């Protein structure tokens, strides 16, 4: 009986000692982790010394550095790559940005700029727009891109897609149908009612499309009409706004039906 009591006393005496050393070990590990984090955060060895920017033509390196928020002494290890990329993608000219670590102290920023597919012409100015209808640049020189001319007032915010059915239909024609049907389109006009007209190069007859409804069938009809060179030479204009009854007007006489 006395042996059991002594054994219980000795076990109870050892528990506080083990608990003390376990707590002390945890405190030491925590202090070591904090010290390591502080070393990573403030050590000059992990300071960013160089930022390399690739893929820019319209965007300037100063814009990229300023918007990225990578300053002198920023930490290379704790670099928030996705946050930096998100900030850069708010620039009107930037479609996508990829931020990655290089060698210690070096950061690589790859910028993929928006590609223009048309020149959007409004009463307030002319803008390059990408395939989504995002205006991102105002060119100073004359553009060789096909134009989308809007005859109504249009709110343009750089870096934000144009919310206008006529403009989006015109972009669909340029990006989706012209590669399939190589028509000599120089300009697409969008009138106040949202009706579209394809103006051709070289004084060739224009094509009245109507609104953006049944656009696929209208472009098929236009391509069929354009496959008859003798009619193209004689026509003043084509009208495919009614898909089932496309018409054309000869240059010297009244309207004819196809």
Largest sheet: 10 strands, mixed
Question: What is the β-strand count?
Answer: 13
Count of helices?
6
Question: Separation of termini?
Answer: 117 Å
Outline, from the CA principal axes?
Answer: elongated
- Helix percent band: 25-40%
Share in β-strands? 25-35%
List SSEs in N-to-C order: HEHHEEEEEEHEEEHHEEE
Mean pLDDT rating: 85
The stretches of 5 or more residues where confidence is low (pLDDT under 50) are: none
Overall structural class, as computed from helix and strand content, comes to alpha/beta
Description:
By secondary structure, the chain is an alpha/beta fold. Helices cover 34% and strands 25% of the residues. The chain is built from six helices and 13 strands. The radius of gyration is 34 Å and the shape is elongated. The N and C termini lie far apart (117 Å).
Features:
single chain, 258 residues, alpha/beta, 10-stranded mixed sheet, 3-stranded mixed sheet, elongated
Brief overview:
This protein is an alpha/beta fold and 258 residues long.
């Amino acid at each position: 009986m006395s042996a059991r009591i002594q054994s219980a006393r000795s076990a109870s005496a050892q528990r506080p000692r083990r608990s003390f050393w376990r707590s002390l070990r945890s405190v030491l590990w925590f202090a070591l982790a904090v010290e390591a984090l502080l070393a990573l955060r403030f050590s000059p060895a992990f300071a960013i010394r160089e930022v390399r920017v690739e893929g820019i033509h319209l965007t300037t390196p100063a814009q990229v550095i300023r918007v990225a928020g990578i300053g002198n002494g920023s930490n290379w290890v704790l670099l928030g790559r996705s946050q930096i990329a998100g900030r850069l993608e708010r620039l009107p000219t930037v479609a996508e940005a990829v931020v990655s670590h290089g060698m210690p102290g070096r950061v690589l920023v790859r910028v993929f700029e928006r590609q223009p597919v048309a020149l959007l012409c409004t009463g307030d100015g002319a803008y390059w727009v990408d395939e989504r209808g995002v205006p991102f640049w105002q060119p100073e020189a004359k553009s060789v891109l096909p134009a989308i001319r809007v005859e109504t007032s249009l709110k343009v915010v750089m870096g934000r897609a144009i919310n206008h059915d006529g403009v989006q239909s015109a972009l669909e024609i340029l990006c989706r149908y012209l590669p399939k049907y190589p028509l000599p389109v120089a300009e697409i006009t969008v009138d106040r009612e949202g009706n579209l007209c394809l103006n051709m190069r070289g004084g060739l007859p224009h094509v009245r499309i109507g609104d953006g409804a049944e656009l696929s069938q209208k472009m098929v009809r236009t391509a069929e009409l354009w496959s008859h060179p003798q009619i193209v030479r004689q026509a003043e204009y084509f009208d495919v706004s009614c898909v089932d009854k496309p018409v054309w007007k000869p240059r010297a006489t009244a309207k004819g039906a196809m």
